[in-house]
Design goal:
Chain lengths: 197, 197, 197, 197
DNA sequence: GATGAATGAGCCTTCATTCAT
DNA sequence: TATGAATGAAGGCTCATTCAT
């Protein structure tokens, strides 16, 4: 059956992407050797090229898959939240927990990101959508008088910055507190800054 | 005379480091070719190896020099500031303006950083000292009751995160406001969060 | 029944050979990819190896089949001709028309031939028999006084050379006259050279 | 001095071209491995790429150099000849002797020629100029009544065909007569065909 | 010191051939 | 018998590093 074939093929691609993520996270794009990816995936080097046209394509597949996953998760959690404070918490916590689960991906994002000329806005902007949604929420809250009026988009990006920095510190082992605690600090800080006096 | 020799030698190293910074900023570490660095420095490829043992060492030299410069500038401006709010402003503004002047270095920091296994704490922590000094200032201010009590070090890092993010956005052309304005937003936001209620 | 099996098998071989001829004519031996041959033959790559041991063997099969065909046709037409002049015409015309019909094969012969170390005399000499028969005819005619005495074999090869060159030019699009006309020129030229003064 | 550098460099290129000619003559373009060329030239593989951008470029360099040399020699000898018969002899003999001296080049020309997509008219037509000059001479002679009127260009190509075939047979060891003798036969044959009755 | 030619290890990619289904 | 996924040897090319001048 065709479907079975496709599933097997999809499974192989996933295996390769998984191996690649691990390798790229450790060595970066340039340092990540296709042979090593193949090895880690438990297949021969040539087989890799049955599923991907080039090393670059593998790299892109890793980013595409993980960014999409991360974005979707973040958006869903934000939508599920009711008020602004909860939305900020959702944004931060979603990202923090996702980073915990996908350390390798976040290491790639933090590390080599930007160098490889994959740096199309496509990749640089993967956070844009969640951030803009956060900005909308801020704007709404301000209009409703729940918080003081602020330049919503800029503020939203600052929240994203703090989240990113927190993730980075956690990845580097600089923090041994649970994600929730880090998130809470961040949310408290932000909320204090926004609260109508 | 030995001294003269040394000065010439030091000068050459600086030329190479300058060329390397420009190349690495454009191409990343792996993509930055020694030949190109030599070219841009106006010397022969072989000559590079009279002053540096390897490409890695050049890369490290770039980071060392720029990080040191950046750190010193930031600390000085912070020390010159009187109260906490001014110190926060000094920290942020120093970094923003420095990034403006040293775009290439900051591009390196933002982009490839982490991948090359130079990622010893030495490099990851170049900001630590300014941040800790900021933390001290926060702590002092809290003790004096100028702001509410907060986990000073964590908050200091959040300020650093926001600064970093702002720099990144500026480098990517996402912001066309003058650095001072971006800094003011950031300082205002932070101060609002810290101010004793 | 065995025979039926064999016929089917023979049919498959022929299909593959046809596909291979087309591919090799376009890309040469080295550039001709087994996958493409299989594709063009409408079968799977693995199947090719059920009928041929290797790519080389396919190549040889193409040559064997086409050379045999070409040789047989040429000999038959020569035998059907009565006198020397007609035999020369038969030789030349047979080859020219055959080249027209089997462009791909002749392109292979003209192009890559020699490189692949298939260049055993077996292939280099496929023309030998027709040429020798031509030589015999020349010798007979000389003995009968119809033409002046000449080193028959050498002359026969010269006729073959001119034919080959004419074919090549036609394949390259250098000639838009019908084959018969080219043949006539060649025959006329040769006959003028041989005719008893 | 710059000139010395250039001479050395030119010398290296020549060495590589020589090695490449030998390798390509034996193995063809696809079969000729850069490593082997380097070996035969007594240098490292990487060094080859200091002088040529790619394998293709090396191949082209071989053809360019040899074709030019061969063409020039042929033309010169033809120009030195007085009457048509001498010119035909010059054409044929020049090519035969040249083939004797440059066996490897002629083997390349005979063997793989055409396959590699270098088959621009540039290469296919390297003989055009000498042949056209021969055609002119034929035309002149016809006008002067020294020979019967013939389609000069076509005839000139036939002479080229016979020469090419003779060379090929000599390269294959099919002929042990000295070049002059083969040439004389060819010239005699041609002259007999052209001579006014 | 300065040069830049030479080196060769290393990596991506291709493709003939094999083999499990 | 047919398939096509898997294999891995092979080869073109790059580039950090060395070294003779």
């Amino acid at each position: 059956m065709k479907t079975k074939q496709k599933m097997v093929s999809e499974f192989r691609r996933a295996e390769i992407v998984d191996a690649a993520r691990s390798v790229f996270a450790r060595k970066g794009f340039a340092g990540g050797i296709v042979d090593e990816i193949a090895n880690e995936a438990g297949i021969a080097k040539g087989t890799v090229y049955l599923y991907f046209r080039s090393k670059k394509e593998i790299y892109r597949a890793v980013l595409d898959r993980d960014m999409e996953f991360s974005k979707k998760g973040t958006l869903e959690r934000m939508d599920a939240a009711g008020n602004l404070k909860d939305k900020i918490r959702a944004f931060t916590l979603a990202r923090l927990e996702n980073a915990e689960a996908k350390k390798e991906f976040f290491r790639i994002m933090d590390a080599e990101f930007g160098s490889v000329s994959f740096t199309r806005s496509q990749y640089r902007d993967w956070l844009r959508e969640p951030v803009l949604r956060l900005a909308s929420a801020i704007e709404d809250a301000a209009r409703r008088g729940e918080i003081r009026p602020v330049p919503s988009e800029k503020i939203a990006w600052l929240v994203a910055d703090m989240t990113r920095g927190t993730i980075r510190r956690r990845l580097l082992g600089r923090s041994d507190t649970p994600p929730g605690e880090d998130a809470e600090l961040l949310v408290g800080f932000t909320w204090a800054a926004l609260a109508a006096e």
